[in-house]
Amino acid sequence: MVKKIIILVLVFFVADFGVYKLLKSGIIKYYGLEKKARILCVGHSQTVLGIDAEKLEESLGVPVAKYAIAGANVLDRFWMIKHYLNMNPNVRTVIYGVDARMFDSEGLSSASYTLFLPFINNHVMEQYLRKQATPEEFYTCKFIKTARFRDQTLNIALRGLLNHIENKKVSRVRIEDKESYLERERKHKVRINTKSVECFNKTMRYLSSLGKTVLLVNIPVIDLLNEIDIANQKKAIKIFQAAAKRYKGVYFLDYNQDYEHDHQLFFDLRHLNEQGNLKVTNRLIQDLRRIEAVSGSIGVEHGNSQM
């Protein structure tokens, strides 16, 4: 009986390890963590749907990684950047997706740290997860490797394994279907959490101290949302503008003001569809080349961008 139990336990841990290695290879491929990227895109779902990393790579002639995931808050992004640079310190440019609601600590998942449990063995992410996870959750994930995956990270791993890296939405938002959502949103102001702002500035200082070029890209959100709390929208924008003035190598690119009124570019109120993705990506390619021409710090090729 004891022998059978030992065999079952061994079979379980061997299977657990095998499945974990397969899923982890998928998630590494999806995020481009295996690449020696020169350009790193970081953000949440707006970056996922708003920037085409494959087109950037093809047009600019340098490896590009997109380490972006729905629900990632400002603190998550600080550790995502440290995580990636720990594996690949040769990144020269970080494209950091921003929006006016980014500093709302209640606006994104409070359990967003679980998105990074698959990387618990990395010493950088282990530091972060020790602070965020409960001891029971932390050690369970340490010993049972498949427990590190949740629905969202499992889906990401499968997309990586199937080579479905870019996620684009072809449909357009139907405003008439969003009235109840807009009505709820009108009751809430844009919150600017002081700790989130401090963490953002800490991230900018960190990247600037390493000599990285940082592009703060304000990815468009539909005007119907932006009009709800214009005063605090402007406060958030001023934080990005101030960072671009204060920290060496930091640039602020505001694409929102040019595209927020074109509803055909949106999949829903917060996210771009395929057409919007194309416009923003092409605009970003042009700006990357322009900044490279001025600073010479990005290292992109100077061919014609593919429109």
In words, what does this structure look like?
This protein has 307 residues and is of the alpha/beta class. It has a single domain (2-295), classed as SGNH hydrolase (Rossmann fold), CATH 3.40.50.1110. 51% of the residues lie in helices and 9% in strands. The protein has helices at residues 2-31, 45-50, 53-60, 74-87, 123-132, 135-143, 151-161, 179-185, 194-209, 223-226, 230-246, 256-259, 274-295, and strands spanning 39-43, 64-68, 93-98, 213-218, 250-254. A 5-stranded parallel sheet has the order 2-1-3-4-5, with helices on both faces. 39% of the residues are buried.
Summarize the structure.
With 307 residues, the chain is of the alpha/beta class.
Which CATH class applies here? Answer: Alpha Beta
The strand count comes to 5
Q: Describe the sheet with the most strands.
A: 5 strands, parallel
Percent strand equals: 5-15%
What is the N-to-C order of secondary-structure elements (H for helix, E for strand)? HEHHEHEHHHHHEHHEHH
Q: At the third CATH level, what is the topology name?
A: Rossmann fold
The computed structural class is alpha/beta
The residue ranges in which pLDDT falls below 50 over 5 or more consecutive positions are 303-307
Overall morphology: globular
What's the domain count?
1
Helical residue percent? 40-55%
Which second-level CATH architecture applies? 3-Layer(aba) Sandwich
Number of helices: 13
Compute the separation of the termini in Å: 68 Å
Compute the CA-based radius of gyration.
20 Å
- Name of the CATH homologous superfamily: SGNH hydrolase
